[in-house]
Every structure is written in C-alpha cells, then in structure tokens.
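Budget justification aside, the reviewers requested a transparent look at the raw inputs and outputs of the sequence design task funded under Objective 1. We therefore reproduce one unedited record. The lines immediately below are the structure tokens for a 162-residue chain.
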C-alpha cells in the first residue's frame, strides 16, 4: 500500500499539485523521494490522532488524504486535513469530493471533532473545490508560498464547521 501511496503522491506533485512535504525537493520527484515522508506518516497513524483515508476505483488507489486531530488542549476540538490528492488518472470522477465527505463524517462521528481546517495554494482552483464541499475561506497568508522564482502564491486558510 505504501508504494501505491507514494506513486500517487509523486504523480500529483509532478502534475503541479500542492502536496510537497517539507523535506522533499521541488518537482520533479520520484516515489523513492517520498518514502521517508510516508514512513513518518505511517509511524504516526492512530484512530484518534491521525488517519489516512484512501479512495479506490476498481481496486486501484484513486486518492487519499490525512485527517489529524490537534493535540494542544486549546484546539483539541479541531482537526486538520492534509495531503488531499486524487491520482492523476482518476481526476474528474468525484474522488476528491468523496474523500472530503468521508473525512468530515469520520471527523465528526468517530473522532468527535467540531471543526476542520486546511490550507490550500492559490492559483490552482483548489479554493473553489473546497467551497463546493462546504468549506469557507477564513484568511490568507499573502505570498507565503514560493513555487518558483517570481511566482509567489497566497496560502489560503479554510475552515469547515462540522
């Protein structure tokens, strides 16, 4: 399963996706480049703290995301959605939408969370996707993401009340 996840992840990054881990070089990347980040994720998985949700189509991995509970007592009622990605071969089929619905249901019903948050890179249309899923923009970090020299993008802060 880890190989499927890193293959998907590399494909998404190389297609312009915004899910580049902190210790990973900018694209192009290989699945091997992402293995250390995937190992860290796998080591932290826990039903109440960090969940990896997968979507499959015809038995093949079509997408995945991470759902994390914040640990500090001041924000323990909140969760964070990270690494939302749809395999490039399955885009346009509703995979991302299904993953987001499932994440909200699990966060509310199984993890007891009251709110979710995420950040998205401006310029990819991601904010419109999340708005259609019920999320609202609550702020921006202007120019926070440098995709390339001379190409700075806002980091969009989004929230979903469960």
């Amino acid at each position: 399963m880890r190989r499927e996840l890193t293959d998907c992840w590399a494909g998404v990054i190389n297609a312009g996706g915004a899910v580049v881990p902190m210790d990973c070089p900018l694209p192009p990347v290989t699945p091997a480049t992402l293995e250390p980040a995937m190992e860290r994720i796998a080591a932290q998985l826990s039903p109440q703290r960090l969940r990896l949700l997968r979507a499959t189509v015809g038995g093949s991995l079509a997408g995945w995301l991470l759902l994390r509970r914040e640990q500090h007592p001041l924000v323990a009622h909140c969760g964070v959605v990270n690494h939302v990605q749809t395999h490039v071969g399955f885009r346009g089929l509703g995979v991302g939408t299904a993953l987001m619905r499932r994440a909200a249901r699990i966060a509310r019903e199984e993890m007891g969370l009251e709110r979710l948050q995420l950040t998205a890179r401006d310029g990819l249309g991601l904010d419109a996707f999340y708005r259609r899923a019920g999320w609202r923009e609550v702020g921006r970090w202007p120019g926070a993401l440098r995709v390339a020299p001379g190409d700075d993008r806002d980091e969009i802060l989004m929230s979903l009340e469960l």
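Helices lie at 2-14, 31-44, 95-109, 126-132. Strands lie at 50-57, 60-69, 78-86, 115-121, 136-148, 151-161. Computational costs for records of this kind are itemized in the attached budget.
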